[in-house]
């Protein structure tokens, strides 16, 4: 039996204790429609085993969620006529995570949809980029 958290909304959805609109499932994942959709067809892919976030999820479950997310992305392109797809994960409250059960948003994108991501890409400072890269590599 997969590990669950009795207070977790998504664990309750996976267990069938809370109604959801499931569109796909397999041994490791469940894909269901988001009740607060960003666009038409917005779905969530969750592992059946509880893990709070990307830092806690078992690598095999993460791979299963990625595979299911890819399948869902293909479905929204083929069946809903989406022009693109965003795959989004948030890790931590400061990154907009609101349910602490790892989940992958599969957000269909349409040419005329009003959804805008929360930043406007602009060139960064090359020295700051290099400094962060050095820290990530474990350099001084």
UniProtKB/TrEMBL annotation:
UniProt motif (Histidine triad motif) ranges: 101-105
Domain HIT per the UniProt entry, residue ranges: 9-116
Active-site feature positions: 103 (tele-amp-histidine intermediate)
Region (Disordered), start-end ranges: 119-140
Name recorded for this polypeptide: HIT family protein
Gene Ontology BP terms: nucleotide metabolic process
Database matches in Pfam families: HIT
InterPro entries: HINT, Histidine_triad_HIT, HIT-like, HIT-like_sf
Any one Gene Ontology molecular-function term assigned to this protein's record: catalytic activity
């Amino acid at each position: 039996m997969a590990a669950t958290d009795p207070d977790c909304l998504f664990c309750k959805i996976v267990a069938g204790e809370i109604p959801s609109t499931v569109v796909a499932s397999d041994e490791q994942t469940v894909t269901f429609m988001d009740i607060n959709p960003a666009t038409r067809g917005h779905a969530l892919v969750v592992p059946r085993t509880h893990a709070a976030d990307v830092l806690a999820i078992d690598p095999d479950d993460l791979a299963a969620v990625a595979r299911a997310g890819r399948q869902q992305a293909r479905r929204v392109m083929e069946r809903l006529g989406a022009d693109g797809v965003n795959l989004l994960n948030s890790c931590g409250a400061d990154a907009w995570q609101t349910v602490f059960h790892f989940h992958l948003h599969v957000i269909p994108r349409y040419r005329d949809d009003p959804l805008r991501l929360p930043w406007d890409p602009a060139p960064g400072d090359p020295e700051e980029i290099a400094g962060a890269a050095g820290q990530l590599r474990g350099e001084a």
